[in-house]
Fold these 2 entries.
Entry 1:
Amino acid sequence: MKHLLIYFTKDLSFNNSFCNFVDRKLQEKNLITNSIIKLNDDDSKLNTLLEIDAKKYELITIIADEHSFSMINKILATLKECELFLVDDEFIIADTKVYQKNSVLIDLNGISINVLKASAFYLPEILHTAKANYDFLISDLDLESAEILLNTSVKPYGVSLNIFSILDNLLYVKVTTNEYSDEVGFLNSIKSLFPKKILFTNNIYKHIITKLKENNKKFSLAESCTGGMIASNFTKIDGASEVYEGSVVTYSNKSKKAWLNVDDFYLENGAVYSQNCSLAMANGVLKLTKANYAISCTGVLGTNDDLGTKSGVVYISAISDTGLILHERLELKGDRIYMQEQCSYACALLLCKLEKDLFFE
């Protein structure tokens, strides 16, 4: 279903943190936004938009504020040729499918429209029906091979796919279904086609937390070049505290030695950017936190090369308290933040690979 998100507010659309909050709430409903339009509170613009462009979408979410909420209800009432009534000191369109405080859901010519009265620190309930999500991740398969194999396998099940790379060795598969799709049959066929390569999740961090909870295991982190981003990505997930012991962000050589007991030999003369240093960091934080697993990273993710190591080169490690060890050298591209995000994904994936039976289908 195509989904249009409209900001019809005085200033909320300029607040990036608020817009990210809206995106997260939509994602919780598995609502993918195909287009975003930001308007000021000019009713003539919205009226024109709904009459002309709305036909391109099945779902429309309108973020309003105290200045525009009643105005939008009036416009929708005009378009539906129905009355308004007064609720909670606001004029609300009479012909609603669902109404909760500050949130109205209507049907306009087959299009589901949800109008929400928001403020900088508040977003009412999104009333669009949540969709089941069947997206998944595939490890260690190139994009071309995945497209050939998957697009052939989907034909009997009535689903369509969009596949894209998150990392060189990690693909995201977006699954679109309809009322005739056989989702269960499709997912079972995928398991058979790619044994121990599938993560049935659209969020690798949430997947790891769920699996560790189920198995009463805990993990910790030792970060350098990501500066705490990996910890942040995990702790965005509710319930992370049940499995996440903690992390140490050791940006300097001095902190690596003092906090993680990394030997000088792995720090001097550029050795800080090496697999040996990464493993020493992982061992250090595993001993410090007494977790079951530890992940670490060290490398260069700035504009310039450093100590003979090119920007984008990162060394990551994952180890367990039972002696399992995996490590990898990454060559990342992009700006600093994009490379940090890729490194975070790669570290999460490496932990999954360390215990394939635990994380992979």
Entry 2:
Amino acid sequence: MRADKLGSAARRALSNADEALGPTPFQVLIRVKGEPGEEQRRQIAEAGARVGLAAGDVLTATVAPGDLGRLTEVDCVAYVELSEPLHPETGAWPQKQ
């Protein structure tokens, strides 16, 4: 595994995956070197990720915790981070001023 290719949230999630119940897949963002072509998508899929959408040099994907390390070994993969909401739900309604 190439830990330098993992974002901090992905590293934390991977370290906590052993404690989790069941192999819940991670939703990830993968930055690739250059524009993602069919060959890059194939290599990423062979590493265990199910590739979704592409936007420039970033792909969305679903990957099992056990395959995250293999994904970082793919040459075309520059960086992997967990897909997280920009504004996580806090469960609280905004206060009226």
